[in-house]
Amino acid sequence: MASISEGESMRDRINLSLPAELIGRIKDIADRKRVTRSAIVEAAVESFLSPDHADMQEAALTRRLDRLSRQVARLERDQRITTETLALFVRFWLTITPPIAPERQAAAQAKGRERFDGFVETLGKRVQKGRWFTDEVVGDRPMLDGD
């Protein structure tokens, strides 16, 4: 009868059914790491049953939540900047724009449509190129002529 030396533990066999896809993934990892499939499954079960498994999951979740919180804070800041920019523009525009005489309304409206079409075209080009004015304002990217 063989004796168990120090450092070795008794091993017992367990038969379990796993989805074929999971078995394929286990086999692929075992082949890549040049270890047995049993070693892969044993490590996975050991990790799952480890007392710090829940702590590790909680830490990972906390890191993700922190990252999401920072992203939401940036979005809120960007939205406030955008709203303030629009409000200041409207106030400025309303302050400096003189009233238009009734006989010039049609020409002013035509010029307004022409300018708006140019604005929309420029906006479309910038969006396609991934160029954002806010990046230029905060200095992340240099402003280029021709935008």
Annotation, overall tally of beta strands: 0
Shape: elongated
Largest sheet: none
Quote the beta fraction. under 5%
Ends distance: 85 Å
- Using only C-alpha atoms, the radius of gyration works out to 32 Å
Summarize it.
The chain has helices at residues 20-33, 37-49, 53-96, 105-129, 133-137. With 147 residues, it is mainly α. Helix 1 packs across helix 2.
Question: How would you characterize the overall build of this protein?
Answer:
The chain has helices at residues 20-33, 37-49, 53-96, 105-129, 133-137. It has 147 residues and is mainly alpha-helical. Helix 1 (20-33) packs across helix 2. The longest helix has 44 residues, at 53-96. The termini are far apart.
Blueprint of the fold:
Elements: H1 20-33, H2 37-49, H3 53-96, H4 105-129, H5 133-137
Short key terms for the protein model shown above:
mainly alpha; 5 helices; 147 residues
